[in-house]
Amino acid sequence: MKILRFVAIFTIALLVTACPYSSEVPLSTPSEKIPQQLLGKWISPSDAEKEAENMKMMPEYREKLYPSVYHVITTIDKTSVKIEKYEFQSTDTTYTVKPHTAHVTTVGNVTFLQVKPSNENKYYFYKMVFPANESMELFPVSDYITEVFASSNEMKSFFDKYKELSFFYSAKEEYTKSKSVGSDLKH
């Protein structure tokens, strides 16, 4: 019974931490203009709440906040961005930085963010939604997709066919634009 329980918990944990679908073929080459609201420093909603509470204090009493993970998105050109993912290392109170590049592709009425880590030759795909001015939701395209595409057009047709179905995506990731200046974070 304990083994069965362990296997069930392990399976659920594996499903929850799965990576988004990846491909060596992009959905398209960078050609669409980057939405300006994508640019900035993005943190989790819980870190945004802590940040807002901290900002209410007088400057001399404010704490130095260290979100566990945050992303800084800056323009490379009109059609591409640089994403730096900062992950906090509590052992030495510093951040490690993982650089990525990204661009967007709209398929019908859905905008996809294509993210390419600088140390990999593949893209990861996210449905991107801005429900409010300072918030962003990313829906990773499910890694249960097993298709391998020979061309961007082939992939785009597949995405167009399934983009409206909920099982095409993994769990939603939510982000809030940070109000703090980058200098209050230790890199």
In short:
Helix content is 20%, strand content 36%. The protein has 187 residues and is α+β, with helices and mostly antiparallel strands.
What do these coordinates show?
- This protein is an alpha+beta fold.
- It has a single domain (18-177), classed as Beta Barrel (Lipocalin).
- The protein is 20% helix and 36% strand.
- It contains three helices and nine strands; from the N terminus they run αββαββββββαβ.
- The chain has helices at residues 2-16, 45-55, 152-162, and strands spanning 22-23, 40-43, 69-77, 80-89, 94-107, 110-117, 123-132, 135-140, 173-177.
- An eight-stranded antiparallel β-barrel has the order 2-3-4-5-6-7-8-9.
- The chain starts with a helix and ends in a 10-residue tail after the last strand.
Topology:
Blueprint: H1 2-16, E1 22-23, E2 40-43, H2 45-55, E3 69-77, E4 80-89, E5 94-107, E6 110-117, E7 123-132, E8 135-140, H3 152-162, E9 173-177
Radius of gyration: 18 Å
Order of strands across the main sheet? 2-3-4-5-6-7-8-9
> According to CATH, what is the topology?
Lipocalin
Shape: elongated
List its traits.
187 residues; 20% helix; disordered N terminus; Lipocalin; 9 strands; disordered C terminus; alpha+beta
